[in-house]
Amino acid sequence: MGADVSDPLSILPVRAAEVALNAYAPYSAFRVGAALMSQSGSIYIGCNVENSAFPVGGCAERHAIAAAVAAEGHAMRLSAIAIVALDPSGEPVPCAPCGACRQAIIEFGPGAEVIFRADAQNAAVTVTAEALLPGAFSFK
Ligand code: THU
Question: Model pTM greater than 0.70?
Answer without folding.
Answer: yes
